[in-house]
Amino acid sequence: VLALGQLLVRSGRAAEEEVLVREVVAAGVQSGVLLTRLGEIELRRELRKMRDAINLYKQAVDQGQIGGTDVKIHITFLALVAWWAWSAWSDGGGSAAVEAVVFLLALFSCVLLHEFGHILMARRFGVRTPDVILLPIGGLARLERMPDEPKQELLIAAAGPAVTLVIALALFAGLRLAGAPLDGSSLEPGHEGLAQQVMWVNVVLLLFNLLPIFPMDGGRMLRALLAMRLGLQRATRIAARLGQVGAVVLGLWGLGFFSEWGFESNFVLVLISVFVFLAAGATTVLPLVHGFD
Questions:
Q1: What digits encode the pLDDT tens for the residues 180-207?
Q2: d(CA 146, CA 162)
Q3: What percent of the chain has pLDDT over 70?
Q4: Residue 169 half-sphere exposure, CB side, CA atoms within 13 Å?
Q5: Which H or E element spans position 65?
């Protein structure tokens, strides 16, 4: 019954919730499935989650195709580039704005490589990846289907951080050979060379992304480990709930609730926490999205 509802939502009829629910209930009756009142409430909630997840992709702009995978940029990412450039221009003029945009584009190039780590590993197990989307908080690679075994999902989830680690190590080796300083005291563009900044941000992203907060890679690795013993559906629900708890903690950190322990407030963390919280809920019904990396 829920699968039929998902197909109807994907067909673009998400706004017709009442009609949609009646059709799903009628189809269930024809199939010998009687939907209880609690079941109908659960159905409505899941349909809204599916609608939100699908709308995310409708708000993205196609940028071409790489190896059979569509590359998309969400409209909010374009807004981030504009805001980043304007902030730098306000502080240091046109040259600072250019440096900031180049830094941001270099960073998200690394994010795209990270996503293609997931994509290439998924293809090794026969899983197609129709598209990848870049958002202000990172990337999302959508899988056509779930891997056949939890071990495969574990390897797919680990492939992205492995690419990030390789990028950081390659930059580190290049900087060492060039005799360049490796001071990571500031992650703001312009304080050191571009390569130093990109290296240190990749290190931070690697550590952050390995946190067991679903649907980030650490959370997906946790789900894969849980699925080995509990099954995919139960593991997804547990990982998603833990992910939402982790998102709340990140949000509190970003708002400055832990500043007395040395964790300074950060608006970006608040933004990330909101996206992660919503994505964790949506992924309980659309589990084929890999990311926020």
A1: 776 654 444 444 578 888 898 899 889 9
A2: 20
A3: 69
A4: 6
A5: strand 60-66
Which residues does the annotation mark as catalytic?
115
pLDDT in tens, 127-175: 888 888 887 767 778 777 778 888 999 999 999 999 999 999 999 998 8
Sign of CA dihedral 13, 57, 290, 292: negative
CA distance 244 to 250: 10
Helix (H) or strand (E) holding 290: strand 289-291
Q: List residues bridging with 290 in a β-sheet.
A: 141
Strands 69-74 and 131-135: parallel
SS3 253: helix
| 156-193 exposure pattern, b = at least 16 Cβ within 10 A, e = fewer | bbbbbbbbbbebbeebbeebeeeeeeeeeeeeebbebe
* C-beta of residue 209 within 8 angstroms of C-beta of residue 218: yes
Query: How many C-beta atoms surround the C-beta of residue 38 within 10 A?
Result: 8
Q: Which residue has the tokens 């909630």?
A: 45
Residues 173, 180 contacting (CB under 8 angstroms): no
